[in-house]
C-alpha cells in the first residue's frame, strides 16, 4: 500500500512538470500569433519573458519533485526493511512448520508400525481362537455322537426290560430272600476298647486277643462285642483299621496286630520314652463267607483307653464279590 502511494506521488510530479511546459509553449504561440504584426523588438521582449517564465517553472518543478523523491525512497527503504523482517519471520515460521511436519510424519510412521504390529497380533490371536473353536466344535460333535450311542443303548436296555417285564413274577419268599441279600451287603462296624473308665491293658508274655466293648456302629451285626471277632457275612472286599494309644516308656511298647483266620496281617506298633504314644495301621482283605478277623495285643506290650476312646477297631464292606 505504501509503495503504491509513493509511485502515485512521483507520477503526479512528472505530470505537473509536463503540464507546465505545455502551457508555456501554448502561451508563446498565442502571443506570437496575436502580435505578429508588431515590431521585432516587441517579439524579442516576449520571447525573453517566456524564457524567464519557463526557467522559473522548471526550477519550481525540480524543487517540488526532489523532496518527494527522497521521501519516497526513504519510505521504500523502510518498507523493504519491514519486508525483510517479515520475510525472516515467515522463513522461521516455515522452518517451524517444516519441523512439525517432519515430526508428524515420524509419528505417523511410528503409529503405522504399531498399528501393523497390533493388526498382526490380532490376526494371530484370531487364528488361535479359530483353531480352538474348531477343536471345540469337533469335541462337541464327538460328545454328541457318544450321547446318541448311549441313548441307543439305553433304548435297547429299556426294550429288553419291557420284553422280560411281563414274565417276572416273584413269590413272597423270593422277595424276602432278595431283601435279606441286600441287607447282608450292608456291613460296617466300629468299636473302642473300653466303654468307661481309664484302663491300661497288658503287658502279657504272649499275644492276647482284644475285645473291643464300646460299640459305635455295628450294621449287619458281623462284629461280636463279646469275643472281639468279626465274621464275614458275604464274600467281598473289606477294609479294616486299628488305632493304638498308650503311655510312653523307654522299653515297653504299645502295639496290636490284625489277624485273618489266624494269619498275621499288619502291626500297629510304637515305643517312645514320652508321656503318650500312638500308632495306627489298616488293610483291605478279600473275605469268604465265614472268614474271621480280630486283633491281638502284641507280646510284652500294653495299650490304654478311656472315655476319649483312643484305641479302636473298625471295618466295613467295600463291595461284594
UniProtKB/TrEMBL annotation:
<feature type="signal peptide">
    <location>
        <begin position="1"/>
        <end position="22"/>
    </location>
</feature>
<keyword id="KW-0732">Signal</keyword>
<dbReference type="Pfam" id="PF00386">
    <property type="entry name" value="C1q"/>
</dbReference>
<feature type="coiled-coil region">
    <location>
        <begin position="94"/>
        <end position="160"/>
    </location>
</feature>
<keyword id="KW-0964">Secreted</keyword>
<keyword id="KW-0175">Coiled coil</keyword>
<dbReference type="InterPro" id="IPR008983">
    <property type="entry name" value="Tumour_necrosis_fac-like_dom"/>
</dbReference>
<dbReference type="GO" id="GO:0005576">
    <property type="term" value="C:extracellular region"/>
</dbReference>
<protein>
    <submittedName>
        <fullName>Multimerin-2-like isoform X2</fullName>
    </submittedName>
</protein>
<feature type="domain" description="C1q">
    <location>
        <begin position="182"/>
        <end position="321"/>
    </location>
</feature>
<dbReference type="InterPro" id="IPR050822">
    <property type="entry name" value="Cerebellin_Synaptic_Org"/>
</dbReference>
<dbReference type="InterPro" id="IPR001073">
    <property type="entry name" value="C1q_dom"/>
</dbReference>
Amino acid at each position: 500500500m505504501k509503495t503504491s502511494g509513493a509511485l502515485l506521488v512521483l507520477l503526479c510530479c512528472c505530470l505537473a512538470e509536463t503540464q507546465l511546459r505545455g502551457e508555456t509553449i501554448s502561451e508563446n504561440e498565442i502571443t506570437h500569433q496575436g502580435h505578429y504584426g508588431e515590431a521585432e523588438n516587441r517579439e524579442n521582449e516576449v520571447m525573453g519573458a517566456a524564457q524567464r517564465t519557463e526557467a522559473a517553472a522548471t526550477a519550481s518543478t525540480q524543487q517540488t519533485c526532489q523532496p518527494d523523491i527522497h521521501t519516497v525512497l526513504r519510505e521504500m527503504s523502510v518498507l523493504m526493511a519491514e519486508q525483510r523482517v517479515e520475510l525472516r519471520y515467515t522463513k522461521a515460521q516455515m522452518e517451524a512448520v517444516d519441523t512439525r511436519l517432519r515430526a508428524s510424519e515420524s509419528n505417523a510412521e511410528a503409529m503405522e508400525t504399531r498399528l501393523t504390529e497390533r493388526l498382526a497380533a490380532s490376526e494371530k490371536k484370531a487364528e488361535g481362537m479359530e483353531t480352538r473353536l474348531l477343536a471345540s466344535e469337533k469335541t462337541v460333535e464327538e460328545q454328541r455322537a457318544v450321547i446318541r450311542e448311549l441313548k441307543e443303548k439305553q433304548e435297547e436296555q429299556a426294550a429288553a426290560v419291557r420284553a422280560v417285564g411281563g414274565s417276572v413274577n416273584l413269590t413272597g419268599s423270593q422277595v424276602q430272600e432278595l431283601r435279606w441279600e441286600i441287607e447282608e451287603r450292608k456291613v460296617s462296624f466300629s468299636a473302642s476298647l473300653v466303654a468307661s473308665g481309664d484302663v491300661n491293658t497288658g503287658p502279657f508274655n504272649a499275644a492276647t486277643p482284644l475285645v473291643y466293648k464300646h460299640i459305635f456302629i455295628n450294621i449287619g451285626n458281623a462284629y461280636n462285642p463279646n469275643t472281639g471277632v468279626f465274621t464275614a457275612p458275604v464274600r467281598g472286599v473289606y477294609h479294616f483299621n486299628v488305632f493304638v494309644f498308650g503311655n510312653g516308656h523307654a522299653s515297653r511298647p504299645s502295639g496290636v496286630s490284625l489277624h485273618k483266620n489266624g494269619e498275621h496281617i499288619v502291626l500297629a506298633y510304637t515305643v517312645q520314652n514320652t508321656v503318650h504314644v500312638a500308632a495306627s495301621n489298616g488293610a483291605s482283605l478279600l473275605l469268604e463267607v465265614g472268614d474271621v478277623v480280630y486283633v491281638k495285643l502284641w507280646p510284652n506290650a500294653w495299650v490304654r483307653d478311656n472315655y476319649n476312646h483312643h484305641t479302636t477297631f473298625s471295618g466295613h464292606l467295600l463291595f461284594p464279590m
